[in-house]
Amino acid sequence: MTQQVEPTTRIQVWDLSIRLFHWALVAAIGYLWYSGEEGGDMTWHMYIGYTVLGLVTYRILWGLVGSHYARFKEFIRSPKATLRYALAFSKGKEPHFVGHNPLGGWMVIALLLLVATQGVTGLFTSDDIFTDGPLVHLVSSDMVSTLSSIHKQTFDFILAAVALHVLAVVYHAVVKKDPIVPAMVTGKKIAPLGTTASTLPLLRAIVIAAVAAATIWAVVNLL
């Protein structure tokens, strides 16, 4: 008996703003790692840190009201559903998801929380020599010391999460023949015929980007 092949089509999955967010965050984390480890320009380290906070704020808002596959409700599954997917994955029988699969969805949340923690604690950190975060004056010296320690330690967790993410991408590319990286460049993936495609509500994206930028500016300059 000849097995029928489900007809597929190439659709837009990741909108432009999600792709820009992704690659901007990659570049920003790379710079923050380099400047933090190698003692680069701390002024730019702080500016890029503010940018990361703006990016995370945008992504959270976009996860609520953004394009179809970017919304949290489209890729955050219950613990039970996630465990069921993980068990199927371990047997090589996991279902295909056009957007994030359940494990990938929770990885997105973990990375957002880690990066947000890194960025927020950075506002309260001090190197006790030249550089103080813009909100150091709001907390005690003991709290500054605690938050500075958390700021340093959190980056190790970020690096571990990034390494796990890269391994997952390589696995999908090599074993599953799922070209995740090209999809995050073009925004397009192969999907079953009739699958919902994403569109970019441009005005909404601009408004949310402005809100995110204004929020971080206000936190840094007005508190």
Automatic annotation (TrEMBL):
<dbReference type="Pfam" id="PF01292">
    <property type="entry name" value="Ni_hydr_CYTB"/>
</dbReference>
<dbReference type="GO" id="GO:0022904">
    <property type="term" value="P:respiratory electron transport chain"/>
</dbReference>
<keyword id="KW-0812">Transmembrane</keyword>
<feature type="transmembrane region" description="Helical">
    <location>
        <begin position="103"/>
        <end position="124"/>
    </location>
</feature>
<keyword id="KW-1003">Cell membrane</keyword>
<dbReference type="InterPro" id="IPR011577">
    <property type="entry name" value="Cyt_b561_bac/Ni-Hgenase"/>
</dbReference>
<dbReference type="InterPro" id="IPR016174">
    <property type="entry name" value="Di-haem_cyt_TM"/>
</dbReference>
<keyword id="KW-1133">Transmembrane helix</keyword>
<feature type="transmembrane region" description="Helical">
    <location>
        <begin position="20"/>
        <end position="36"/>
    </location>
</feature>
<dbReference type="GO" id="GO:0020037">
    <property type="term" value="F:heme binding"/>
</dbReference>
<dbReference type="InterPro" id="IPR051542">
    <property type="entry name" value="Hydrogenase_cytochrome"/>
</dbReference>
<dbReference type="GO" id="GO:0009055">
    <property type="term" value="F:electron transfer activity"/>
</dbReference>
<keyword id="KW-0472">Membrane</keyword>
<feature type="transmembrane region" description="Helical">
    <location>
        <begin position="48"/>
        <end position="70"/>
    </location>
</feature>
<dbReference type="GO" id="GO:0005886">
    <property type="term" value="C:plasma membrane"/>
</dbReference>
<feature type="transmembrane region" description="Helical">
    <location>
        <begin position="157"/>
        <end position="175"/>
    </location>
</feature>
<protein>
    <submittedName>
        <fullName>Cytochrome B</fullName>
    </submittedName>
</protein>
<feature type="transmembrane region" description="Helical">
    <location>
        <begin position="196"/>
        <end position="220"/>
    </location>
</feature>
<feature type="domain" description="Cytochrome b561 bacterial/Ni-hydrogenase">
    <location>
        <begin position="13"/>
        <end position="187"/>
    </location>
</feature>
